[in-house]
Amino acid sequence: MPDTEASPPPRNGAGLASLVLGIVACVFSFIPFATEFVAVPSSVAAVAAAFIGWDRIERGVATNRADTVAGGLLGAFALATSVLVYLATHSRDAV
User: Fold this and answer.
1) d(CA 86, CA 83)
2) Arithmetic mean of pLDDT, 83-92
3) pTM (predicted TM-score)
4) Which of 12, 30, 52, 95 lies in the 20 to 30 Å Cα band around 68?
């Protein structure tokens, strides 16, 4: 009788968290007040979770490459948008 060892389930939590945080960051990155308190922290967390998820994919313990990449890109886009919104709402005219 062969010894069949069950493989552990994939650890896809970081990639999924990256995707969810990236979506939240993108939604709130266009709202001036929410940019500073919601979008920036969630976009930084999305990018960090994407790096963790990508490391897990490279080690072969995670299987959600598309979610991880999309979450990281959404987080980076939201961070850039948040910076632009912040600069647009906090700039002063130098006349």
Assistant:
1) 5
2) 89
3) 0.88
4) 30
